[in-house]
Design a protein that fits this description.
about 240 residues, alpha/beta, 7-stranded parallel β-sheet, 5-stranded parallel β-sheet, 5 helices, 12 strands, disordered N terminus
C-alpha cells in the first residue's frame, strides 16, 4: 500500500502504529536503544506513508505498519507519565522563569510549566526538561534569551514544537520545528534570541518509558536464553 500511495498523508494513528511496532522490536532485541530512539523520532516526524514505511521495513510486522487495517491495538501506556488530559492543568500558574547568570538553572522532573516561561542565561546555562512536566495550558510559550550562554529544551515524543527564535553569532535549533503532535498533547512555542550563545530543542523518551523498555528488552533476552538452553537439553 505504501508503494502505491507514498505521498498520502499519514495520520496520528498511523504514526502510533509504527511506534508500537518499534517498541515491540526493541523488547524482542531486534533493535538496540539508539536505533529505536532514532526511528521513533523519525516516526513522529513523518508526514507521509512513504516516510513511515522504511522505519519498519526490516522488521517482521513492517509490511502491515502504516495505513493497513491490520487490527493493531494502540498501547494505552504510551510512555507518558500520565495521560495528556491529566498533565494539562488549568487554574495553576506554574513556574514562569529561570535565570542562569555566571551559573545555571534546571527545571526537570515533576513540575508545572506556566503558560509563559522566560529563560535568561548570560555566561551560564539552563535546562528545561518537559518530559515529566505538567502544563498550565494547552499551549505554552518558552522565551529564551541566551547571551554567551545556552538553554536546552527537552520535550517528549508526541509534543508539537514551534520554533521561532533567532541566532546571531550563535544558534537556535529548529530541528524539531513542525513535528506533528499527538491528539490532545500540548504545543510548545520556543522563541527568543541567542547572541553568541545557543538554544537547543531535543526530543527524548521519558525516563520511565526508557527504563520500562530496557527492562522488557532484558526480560525478552532472558527468556530467549532459557528457551535456547531448553532446546539444547532436548537435543
Amino acid at each position: 500500500m505504501t508503494e502505491e500511495l507514498p505521498e498520502l498523508r499519514a495520520s496520528d494513528a498511523d504514526r502510533e502504529r509504527v511506534a508500537e511496532i518499534l517498541r515491540d522490536a526493541l523488547a524482542e532485541g531486534r533493535l538496540v536503544m539508539e536505533e529505536f530512539e532514532e526511528r521513533l523520532d523519525a516516526a513522529y516526524r513523518a508526514r507521509t506513508y512513504g516516510e513511515l514505511e522504511p522505519l519498519t521495513a526490516d522488521l517482521p510486522t513492517g509490511a502491515a505498519a502504516p495505513g493497513a487495517a491490520a487490527g493493531l491495538s494502540l498501547r494505552k501506556d504510551t510512555g507518558a507519565v500520565t495521560a495528556w488530559s491529566e498533565r494539562i492543568v488549568s487554574g495553576v500558574e506554574g513556574s514562569s522563569a529561570g535565570v542562569g547568570i555566571l551559573g545555571g538553572f534546571q527545571r526537570k522532573g515533576r513540575w508545572t510549566i506556566g503558560r509563559r516561561f522566560t529563560a535568561v542565561c548570560c555566561m551560564g546555562g539552563g535546562e528545561i526538561d518537559l518530559r515529566e512536566a505538567n502544563f498550565a495550558a494547552r499551549e505554552v510559550t518558552v522565551t529564551c534569551w541566551a547571551f554567551m550562554g545556552g538553554v536546552n529544551v527537552v520535550v517528549p515524543p508526541g509534543v508539537e514544537v514551534d520554533v521561532r527564535g533567532l541566532g546571531i553569532m550563535g544558534g537556535f535549533d529548529a530541528r524539531e520545528d513542525g513535528t506533528p503532535g499527538e491528539p490532545g498533547a500540548p504545543r510548545v512555542i520556543v522563541k527568543g534570541l541567542a547572541l553568541m550563545g545557543g538554544v537547543g530543542v531535543e526530543r527524548k523518551l521519558p525516563k520511565a518509558e526508557r527504563r520500562r523498555l530496557e527492562e522488557e528488552q532484558r526480560r525478552q533476552k532472558s527468556l530467549d536464553r532459557e528457551d535456547h538452553e531448553d532446546r539444547k537439553e532436548l537435543g
